[in-house]
Design brief:
- By secondary structure, this protein is mainly beta.
- The chain has one domain: Jelly Rolls.
- Helices cover 8% and strands 38% of the residues.
- The strands form two sheets. Strands 2, 3, 5, 6, 9, 12, 13 and 15 form an eight-stranded antiparallel beta sheet that branches. Strands 1, 4, 7, 8, 10, 11 and 14 form a seven-stranded antiparallel beta sheet that branches.
- β10 and β11 form a beta hairpin.
- The longest helix has 17 residues.
- About 4% of the residues have low confidence.
């Protein structure tokens, strides 16, 4: 299994804790968290993970209009390419993944998350001894958007699932009237090597 180094999130965690305290004192924050839309899947069973997951918007990179109408923002030559992760975790019909050249980035559209949506997980391959895959969360806090690193993925010569990555910003849903909030995730290929990613999932903790 691919190693994911969980990074310090000092700024965003400080904001989130303060937001939660404000929520508790303010008293009438959302009651039970509302579920975000999505079809439940179990893509990581082969790796001993029986948690349920929901595919992120265009997180399989299969759309022919990916990058123009999908809502993803791409820089540095990042693009969907032929060649799926070999486990076909989402669908046996899938045939594409996302290429991140050295220095390239890919930012998701806004993704609905609730209090019980604490992690993301995906498949990745690439990098080298000095080139990792940086994953950041963009959170719309009460004090303005905050971007913070949540994981740095070590290089891998073969496709592999990442570890579960906790991003923290789902806690902000407690401040929302409907029990949800919207976040984005940014993927950056650090150093001189390229990366490929595929099948980005949110864990809604709906069962299993």
């Amino acid at each position: 299994m691919m190693h994911a180094a969980i990074l310090r999130r000092g700024v965003v965690l400080g904001v989130l804790v303060l937001a939660m305290i404000t929520s508790a004192i303010g008293a009438t924050a959302a009651g039970a968290a509302t579920s975000c839309p999505g079809t439940v899947e179990y893509p990581f069973l082969a790796w001993g993970d029986s948690n349920s997951y929901v595919l992120a918007p265009s997180g399989d990179f299969e759309s022919k209009s990916f990058g123009t109408k999908s809502g993803w923002a791409l820089t540095g030559g990042s693009k969907a390419v032929t060649g799926n992760e070999p486990f076909f975790a989402h669908s046996k019909r899938d045939s594409r993944s996302l290429l991140l050249p050295a220095g390239g980035t890919a930012t998701t559209p806004t993704i609905c998350v609730g209090l019980y949506d604490p992690t993301i997980r995906l498949f990745a391959v690439g990098g080298n001894a000095t080139s990792a895959l940086l994953i950041e969360v963009v959170a719309p806090t009460p004090f303005g958007p905050v971007t913070a690193p949540v994981a740095k993925i070590d290089a891998s010569k073969e496709w592999s699932p990442t570890a579960e990555i906790y991003f923290g910003a789902n806690l902000l849903s407690a401040l929302s009237a409907d029990g949800t909030t919207s976040v984005q995730f940014r993927f950056t290929s650090l150093g001189s090597a390229s990366w490929k990613i595929d099948d980005l999932y949110i864990d809604p903790r709906k069962g299993g």
